[in-house]
Each structure stands twice: as C-alpha cells, then as structure tokens.
Specification:
Elements: E1 2-6, E2 9-13, H1 24-27, H2 33-38, E3 48-49, H3 61-72, H4 85-99, E4 109-113, H5 114-126, E5 132-137, H6 143-149, E6 153-158, H7 169-175, E7 180-186, H8 198-210, E8 214-218, E9 243-248, E10 260-264, H9 267-280, H10 286-298, H11 300-324, E11 336-337, H12 348-359, E12 361-362, E13 364-365, E14 377-380, H13 385-404
Parallel strand pairs: 3-12, 5-6, 5-7, 7-8, 8-9
Antiparallel strand pairs: 1-2, 4-10, 9-10, 11-14, 13-14
Helix pairs in contact: 3-10, 4-10, 5-9, 11-13
C-alpha cells in the first residue's frame, strides 16, 4: 500500500497486484526470446536442438582436475575481488600473445562471473540515465535489456546479409547524436557469424574517436574464426583506452557452466567496474578460477582442435542450407549459421514454430536478435556431425513439403 498526500493528510492507495511492486524497468523487459522458445523443447524427446549456443564438447579433463585439486587442497576462500593475480596475469599474457593487446594485470583486468557480468558491470559503470547506447543488430539478446536496466537508451543499428552483417561507418554515423556514449560491438557475431577485419575497423575507429565514444567489445568468440585471424578492436590505433574488452572461457574452452569471464580496459573504468563487482558478487568462484588458469596454461592445443571441428561442421551446414534452397551467407566466426527463410513467405517465428512441431528441429527465430533478424533462423553447429546431418535432412524435407503445399 502507498499513500498520496492531500491537503496535509495521506490517503492509502492499494496496489492492484504484486506486479505493481516491481520496478517498471524490470516489468517492461520481455523475457528471453531464446529461452521462451526452448521451453517448448522440453516437452518432446525426439527433438534435435540447434538452438543454445553451447559447445557439445566436455571441458577437458585436466581443466576439471585443476578445479577438483583446488577443492582437495582446501582452496575454498575468497580470492581478490578482481580475481586471482595468477589468473589475471595469464589473461594478460594470453591477450598479448594472441591479439597483440597489452594490459596491466594488476589494474586493467577483472575476472567476472561469465562475460555477461562483465558487460553488465561495464554498462552500469558507464551509463548516466538517458545516455544512448549504440548496438549493431542482429546481436546477442542481452545488450538492450541490460542497457535499459542501467537507465540507458538502446539504439539499434541494422546490418545486412549482403554485407556479411558487418558494421559500416555510414550506418554508425546515421545514428550518432549528442547523447551517444557507448558503442557495443560483438565480432565474431552471435547470431550471424560475421567478422570484422582491420580494414573494416579503420573507419569505425575514426568515428569512435571523432564522436568521443566508449566501446564495449564483446570478443567471446575471438578464438572461433575460420580462414582469418581475429582483430581485436582494442588493438586498433588509439582504441585501447576507449575500449573495454570483454571475453571469457565459455565458448572456445567449452566451459559454459563454469561461468568464467573477464574484462580489460582503462584503469579508471576497471576500478569503477570493480566497485560494483565488490558489492554484488564479491569474486568469481575460486575453483572455477583455478580451472580457467589451467585452460590458459595447458589447454590451447585442445582449444585449437575444437575450433577445427567447428570449421568442418560450419562447411557442412552452410553447404546443406544452400542445397535445401535457403540462402545462407558464409559465417567466418563463432559457431552459428544464419540462413534466410524469407523464400518460404513465413515469419521467423512461424517457421521456427512449425519446424519444431512438424520436423522435430529446434532453432531460434531470427527476429529475437533485433533489427535485420526477421526472415532468418539462428542454427548452432556446435553439435555432432550426426545430429547436424539428420537436422539438415529434416529441414530439407520440411522445406520441400512447404513448397509442395
């Protein structure tokens, strides 16, 4: 019950439901389109799932063993809020060796509970209510809701299959206003598999500097590139101090359930993020930190073998969709294909729903990923070749029946 004052007295006002107690910021956010759709999957046992972005590989045994050994050794206390110094040093060394970006482990690296917490911390540290946050789409579904929860205004930037879903300077320029503050980047891209080259980044970096923007670069799929090496936006000339590099261990190291991520950036920004982190989660789980350290120190060859397996599956899936008659740009990164289903005349939601019900294949309708997603389907190829082959057969039969009907 709340009270409104009237002529010196307060009048009780009864809330109509428990929902009235909720923050409007939370109440107005839509549930995850991915999770909502995949709640339907649990009702059937014959489903082939191409939906959740999770490696089908198990975390390598020696990485799991490092966590077990840490427990057996009694290492169950808090670590430094920013993460174990040894892990932060290993992260800094890895980024320098792999992507030519150098960070001070003591002041420019923070270990987080997954890359998602790192993104949340960065946005909360940066946003003053009303700031505009620029987000190339289709994109990972969490950016806009986290922006809204932090009081920011998400501004989508549509990218297109004809450009392999690259962000173009003219598209970015068109949405910049005096209220623009942060540009969120995710390349290699979830859901499209698009990448950006050094030449692609140059005009974007120029606009970032000219318009005094800060960049959150989500590089969780950095290791998963095919035919070319990932170029970190933080490695572009003059961009390191303007960029918060976010990554983690979930995708390349098959460690989704460990919830291990990190963020690197300017000392002042990392310090601000650390303050929020201190008051919310204290530190990432210690046993998971030991596992992540082992992955960086002794797991790179296994990572490379997993990437090669994804590359084989990528070629299989793209070829399969094209043979079915569904246009599919060639993803150069991550582990998603993003075929167009526009030729069927159906919306993404309808196609995905019917594909699930009639063919037993679960994929994510493209419209949940924002601008440019409608008319597409996100299909993860982080599953076995046997499953992928069967899924393609089912999709092919489903599309054939649609055309016959």
């Amino acid at each position: 019950m709340i009270r409104e004052k009237s002529q010196g007295t307060s009048i009780p006002v009864q809330r109509q439901s428990m929902a009235d107690y909720l923050s409007p910021l939370v109440r107005d956010i839509k549930p995850s389109g991915i999770r909502r759709f995949f709640d339907l999957v649990s009702t059937r046992k014959d489903i082939i799932t191409l939906g959740v972005g999770e490696p089908d590989f198990v975390t390598p045994w020696h990485v799991r063993e490092a966590a077990v050994y840490s427990l057996e050794s009694g290492k169950t206390q808090y670590t430094s809020n920013a993460g174990m110094p040894a892990l932060r040093e290993a992260i800094g060394q890895y980024l320098n060796d792999s992507f030519s970006v150098e960070y001070d482990p003591a002041s420019e690296v923070i270990v987080t509970v997954g890359g998602s917490e790192a993104i949340d911390l960065a946005l909360r540290a940066l946003i003053t209510p009303g700031d505009e946050i620029l987000i190339p789409e289709p994109c990972y579904i969490s950016y806009s809701p986290i922006t809204a929860l932090s009081g920011g205004v998400p501004v989508g930037i549509e990218t297109f299959a004809v450009d392999n879903f690259k962000l173009r300077a003219e598209q970015l320029q068109a949405v910049i206003t005096p209220r623009s503050k942060v540009l969120i980047l995710c390349y290699p891209s979830n859901p499209t598999g698009g990448i950006m080259t050094y030449e692609d980044w140059l005009p974007i970096a120029k606009l970032v500097e000219e318009n005094d923007l800060i960049v959150i670069s989500d590089e969780i799929y950095a290791e998963l590139t095919y035919g070319s090496k990932h170029v970190s936006f933080a490695a572009m000339p003059g961009m390191k101090d303007r960029t918060i590099l976010v990554s983690g261990f979930s995708k390349a190291f098959a460690m989704t359930g460990w919830r291990m991520g990190y963020a690197c950036g300017h000392t002042d920004i990392i310090a601000a993020m650390l303050k929020i982190h201190q008051y919310t989660v204290m530190c990432a789980p210690v046993m998971a930190q030991y596992a992540a350290l082992e992955a960086l120190q002794h797991g790179l060859e296994e990572k490379d073998r997993m990437v090669e397996s994804y590359n084989q599956r990528r070629r299989l899936v793209v070829k399969g969709f094209r043979e079915i008659g569904l246009e599919c740009h060639e993803p150069q990164g991550a582990f998603y294909a993003f075929p167009s289903i526009a030729s069927t005349g159906m919306s993404s939601e309808t196609f995905a729903q019917r594909l699930l019900e009639e063919a037993g294949v679960a994929a994510v309708p493209g419209d949940v990923f924002g601008l440019g997603g409608e008319g597409h389907l996100r299909c993860s190829y982080a599953t076995s070749v046997t499953q992928l082959t069967e899924a393609l057969d089912r999709i092919g039969n489903f599309v054939h029946q649609l055309k016959q009907g």
